[in-house]
Specification:
By secondary structure, the protein is mainly α. The protein has seven helices and no strands.
């Protein structure tokens, strides 16, 4: 089977599990992590083959954060679920460091050491998603905002790189993240009353 056909099949599998992951996150269900792990492993390979190196590394980060998030949520098995919260000033500071530092580091690496045709764009999508994923693992409402900043830039990038299934998935992720933000805000308000 030729590589292009294999990549197409793998994209479908990764996208299906990616949709499952975000729907499970929206519903605040721990099974988002195994779905995400499978999706990210496949996506790492697909994006590397498509020369979206920062996106590929980002998915490696998603993998690590999925393992961390799964462990973080699961370790509290006999305790009440980790509550949804608002991002503190210090967490915003950490998020800013992740975005700015991640962007600069990835851009410089992509520009100097790879044949990436879109180093700044690729680095920006990746860096904003890093910060959003970190906030998701900490169950902060604002994770949805940072993830959607990443999604807004990722959609045209994925179409440009001729990855329409991933662009379609990212459109779905954008919509679900909008709904997820309001759902988590409602849950946060209910748990603080």
């Amino acid at each position: 089977m030729e590589l292009q056909r294999v990549l197409e099949i793998l994209q479908w599998v990764a996208v299906i599990f990616g949709v499952a992951e975000v729907l499970l996150a929206w519903k605040n269900n721990i099974l988002l992590y195994p779905a995400g792990i499978l999706s990210t492993v496949l996506t790492i390979y697909i994006f590397a083959k498509s020369k979206l190196y920062a996106e590929s590394v980002l998915n490696g980060y998603y993998f690590v954060m999925s393992v961390y998030g799964w462990w973080h949520w699961h370790k509290r098995r006999n305790e009440p679920p980790l509550p949804i919260g608002r991002t503190s000033r210090s967490e915003w500071g950490i998020s800013a460091v992740i975005v700015i530092g991640g962007f600069l580091l990835q851009y410089l690496i992509l520009k100097r050491f790879t044949d990436s045709p879109v180093p700044a764009w690729d680095a920006w999508v990746s860096a904003t998603a890093w910060a959003g994923t970190w906030l998701l693992a900490r169950r902060k409402i604002e994770n949805w905002v940072l993830l959607n900043i990443s999604n807004l830039f990722a959609i045209p990038l994925l179409f440009y790189k001729q990855l329409p299934l991933y662009a379609g998935l990212t459109i779905i992720l954008f919509v679900v993240a909008c709904i997820g933000y309001f759902e988590w805000a409602k849950r946060f308000k209910a748990q603080t009353i």
